[in-house]
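cron nightly-structures :: item 1 of 1
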Amino acid sequence: MRPDNFRNGQVVGLCQVEGMATRRQGKVGQDLPGLSGILGFMGDETKATKDSATAAAARRDRLMAPANEVPVLLPWTSLLGRSEDLAVVLVGARLYSTGIQFDIGVRGRGSAALGLHAGVSGRVDAGGDVLCLGIDMPGGLSVANVPREGTDSGLPTDGPSLVAGGGGGGPGAVDTSYLLYPAPPPGRLAILCAWPAHGIDETRTEFDGSGLAALQSQVETLWPIDTREPWPPTPPKPVLPAGGWFAAYANGA
């Protein structure tokens, strides 16, 4: 005789889930997880997806200024450091909801006007040549574009970061930008500068950041960021000759 809970080759039983009686079906001899286990797995998966999206958004905010915002221009310009033939200038500063973008210009003459691009962008060459920039903020916070002993050389996941952006120029004039994330707390902010390879000693230039919080309310948001879009964006596939070597290579053949 078949048991009362046997129907169409399946065993139908009752399981108690958080005070609720829930029916569960399965093939004979198959032990299926209860509803609580299934919901728990789905909850973990949803949380992992949200955590991944949050991490991607934080990484994006550290690497680039918001593309959907009109920033507030800060009245900050200054000569940060100089030698006889080279000068480092803060050309401007733009306040976003996520931080401050500093526009840095380097001007040189004679032999000092050549080969500036790598050092300006924060990339250290084989001889250790690099333009050193740092930010000293209220509350004991500080960050710089140089490696710190005992820390990962990659992008930090907590605390402030200072990341070089795009730039360009030619002999005698090179420009770049650095993004400080997040916006510093109110108070005096100092930019430190040094370039030993070009004879520029360490300098400290202070700015009044007491009104930054109020100014951030003036940042205009053009439209919401579409969080459904992956970041970094997936690059488009190149157009390749059909059936050729490049197509085979791209397909992993």
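cron nightly-structures :: done
The helical segments are 35-63, 117-120, 212-216, 245-250.
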